[in-house]
Design brief:
The protein is of the alpha+beta class. Helices cover 37% and strands 31% of the residues. The protein is rod-shaped and about 90 Å long.
Amino acid sequence: MKLISNFKFQISNLHGFTMIELIVVFLVMAVLSTVGIASFVDYSRAQVLQQAANDLVNTLNTAKTRTVSQNKPIECPSTSVLQSYSVTINTGAGTYSLNVTCSGVTTPLSTTPLTRDVSFNSASDTPPTTTINVIYPVLTGGVRGTGNIVLMSFNKTKTITISSSVGNISVQ
């Protein structure tokens, strides 16, 4: 009989969590979740801007590479002379296009819109424009239309710089 009474005593001494302990645990979890979500959103926005900058740099490099190879695309008639490849940036519409110029006629090869929430922003040392042309001439080489192209998203910026010597492209 003594064994049964000890068993009842042990069962009655088992305690659960108090309401205050549960509230504290849930508050800590809520704070950690909020910080984690905010960090993830910030990281995600930075990656969207970085990807938009990478896409524009790839288009600029494509124009530069095609100029060096002097490969005439099918959009140019066989009797025409390949003059240049260019990238035209339309800041108002938020698009940029890869173009080819043959015998004075410019033909767009592809047009790419900027990702949602990313826009062009004029650099502080240049007046705002609606169109920026970066031209890679075939015969003379080099580049025309150098300077800075600034992409902006959620108060973050990426600056694409095109050097005037040979058209080297860098991103900051």
